[in-house]
Write a structure and sequence with these properties.
Keywords: DNA-binding. The protein has 110 residues and is of the alpha+beta class. It is 48% helix and 13% strand. The chain has a single domain, classed as Winged helix-like DNA-binding domain superfamily/Winged helix DNA-binding domain (Arc Repressor Mutant, subunit A, Orthogonal Bundle). Strands 1-3-2 form a three-stranded antiparallel β-sheet. A hairpin with a 2-residue loop joins strand 2 and strand 3.
Length: 110
Amino acid sequence: MSGGRPEGFNELLHFPVRLSIVSLLAPAVHVEFSFLREATGLSDSALSKQLTSLQEAGYVEVRRTGRRATAALTTEGRRALAEHAAALRTLLGAAFEESPPVTPADDVLR
C-alpha cells in the first residue's frame, strides 16, 4: 500500500458516478444509454461526459446506431473494476467483520 491506498485502487473508478456506471455495465453485454441515464439519475450530457472519461481510459466501449447508443465494459474495464473492488476490500480490512463483544471498560475511549 502506498500513500494509504492499496495496490489496484483506481481514482477514475472511485468517483461515485463512474463506479455506479461500471457496476451497472459489469453484469451485461451491452447496456442502453437510456437505462444508464435513468439508473444513475444523470442528464444526457453528464452521462455522456462520464462515459467519455471511461472510454478514454479504455474501460468502456460506446456504440452508436442512429440515435441509439449502448455501452459495454471492455476487458480492461472489467480488470480495472475487479482490481479496484479488491483494493477497497483491502482498504476496509476487517471493518465489516463481526465486532467483538463490548465490555463496560471498552466503552471509554482511550
